[in-house]
Fold this sequence. Notes:
The chain is 61% helix and 0% strand. With 126 residues, it is mostly helical. It has a single domain, classed as 434 Repressor (Amino-terminal Domain), CATH 1.10.260.
Amino acid sequence: xxxxxxxxxxxxxxxxxxxxxxxxxxxxxxxxxxxxxxxxxxxxxxxxxxxxxxxxxxxxxxxxxxxxxxxxxxxxxxxxxxxxxxxxxxxxxxxxxxxxxxxxxxxxxxxxxxxxxxxxxxxxxx
Length: 126
């Protein structure tokens, strides 16, 4: 029995880092010759949302996972949520290498939020 093409999109990079879900989605679309526009029409996911995922600016929400699985046979919401959660856990634990995308954006945003909270707290107790 032939494996579905979804499994051809491996979960790790050549460096051994866990791939961003957007990279996996992009590889899956390329392997099945599906355009982003076509996926947007099939799934009801906005093209900007897809673009942000594929460009590694966003992870995959539960709603998006359900829509992707409805549009892409051989995938399930659990697959999409699973790879997104796996990536986010690796990101939070700091085990990702120098992959571009969400990791640097999320880290910068987190550091900015922490700094802002500290400033607000210090103002309360001054």
